[in-house]
């Protein structure tokens, strides 16, 4: 199961962790993994290219079946909120259809 933790600070989104594969060779699980990967990577790239948050300012780590990203609290603005919300909308749509493959939780930081 893919586990996603969304980090919130003072009611603002500041990052996420996406961890583990959704399925071991299961076609539906693989599809869920690809969707999660596309949404989380698009968010990371958009934060960099649209919000102009540099790699040095962003805390990010990527490995097999793992992506972690955090932005500094002082860089949160309307654009970063929109980008995070867009990713979360997509992830929650996947979770509604495939809840046996994905779990999303929010954590205050």
Automatic annotation (TrEMBL):
<keyword id="KW-0378">Hydrolase</keyword>
<comment type="similarity">
    <text>Belongs to the Prp family.</text>
</comment>
<keyword id="KW-0645">Protease</keyword>
<dbReference type="InterPro" id="IPR036764">
    <property type="entry name" value="Peptidase_Prp_sf"/>
</dbReference>
<dbReference type="GO" id="GO:0006508">
    <property type="term" value="P:proteolysis"/>
</dbReference>
<dbReference type="GO" id="GO:0042254">
    <property type="term" value="P:ribosome biogenesis"/>
</dbReference>
<protein>
    <recommendedName>
        <fullName>Ribosomal processing cysteine protease Prp</fullName>
    </recommendedName>
</protein>
<keyword id="KW-0690">Ribosome biogenesis</keyword>
<keyword id="KW-0788">Thiol protease</keyword>
<dbReference type="Pfam" id="PF04327">
    <property type="entry name" value="Peptidase_Prp"/>
</dbReference>
<dbReference type="InterPro" id="IPR007422">
    <property type="entry name" value="Peptidase_Prp"/>
</dbReference>
<dbReference type="GO" id="GO:0008234">
    <property type="term" value="F:cysteine-type peptidase activity"/>
</dbReference>
């Amino acid at each position: 199961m893919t586990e996603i933790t969304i980090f919130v600070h003072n009611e603002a989104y500041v990052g996420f962790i996406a961890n583990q594969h959704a399925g071991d060779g299961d076609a539906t699980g693989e599809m869920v993994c690809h969707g999660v990967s596309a949404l989380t990577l698009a968010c990371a790239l958009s934060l960099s290219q649209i919000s102009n948050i540099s790699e040095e300012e962003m805390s990010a780590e990527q490995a097999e079946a793992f992506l972690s990203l955090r932005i500094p609290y002082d860089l949160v603005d309307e654009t970063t909120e929109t980008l995070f919300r867009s990713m979360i909308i997509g992830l929650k749509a996947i979770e509604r259809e495939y809840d046996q493959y994905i779990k999303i939780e929010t954590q205050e930081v």
